[in-house]
Amino acid sequence: MDKNEIHLNHINLRSRGIPPQIARSAIEGLGQEVMNNLAQQGLVQPGQKIQLGDLNLGRLRLQRRGDANELRTEIARVITSAITARIGRK
Q1: What is the 3-state secondary structure (H, E, C) of the chain?
Q2: Are the C-beta atoms of residues 55 and 10 closer than 8 Å to each other?
Q3: Is 55 left (phi over 0), alpha (psi -120 to 50) or beta?
Q4: How many domains does the chain have?
Q5: 30-40 and 68-89 are packed helices; what angle lies between their axes, rounded to 10 degrees?
Q6: What radius of gyration do the chain's Cα atoms show?
Q7: Which of 73, 76, 67, 83 is nearest to 17 (CA)?
Q8: 5 pLDDT higher than 80
Q9: Distance between CA atoms of 83 and 90, rounded to whole angstroms?
Q10: Residue of 2, 58, 65, 66 with fewest CB within 10 Å of its CB?
């Protein structure tokens, strides 16, 4: 099985009121969720490597601030959208 990779130097994302432990829990599995989103859209091929540099994702708003799964899903959605926009420009 070929390994896909996305390299990001820095992600800037702001949110208020999310406890640090929820934020840390939310990033577990984030990379896989982003790759799954991109694969579902047909934007990555096996073994593909994507270099993106820095992403400024702005402010994140959630319905339930204490839900790590919702936070992970929303971060993945925003990252996927940013990557899709970058890939589309190349």
Answers
A1: CCCCEEEEEEEEEECCCCCHHHHHHHHCCHHHHHHHHHHHCCCCCCCCEEEEEEEEEEECCCCCCCCHHHHHHHHHHHHHHHHHHHHHHC
A2: yes
A3: beta
A4: 1
A5: 50
A6: 13
A7: 67
A8: no
A9: 11
A10: 2
* Cα–Cα nearest to 17, from 77, 59, 78: 59
Q: Specify whether the CB–CB gap between 36 and 77 falls below 8 A.
A: no
Helix 20-27 to helix 68-89 angle (10° resolution) is 50
Q: Which domain holds residue 46?
A: 5-89
**What distance in Å separates the CA atoms of residue 63 and residue 51, rounded to the nearest whole number?**
32
pLDDT in tens, 43-71: 877 777 777 788 787 777 777 667 889 88
pLDDT of residue 10: 79
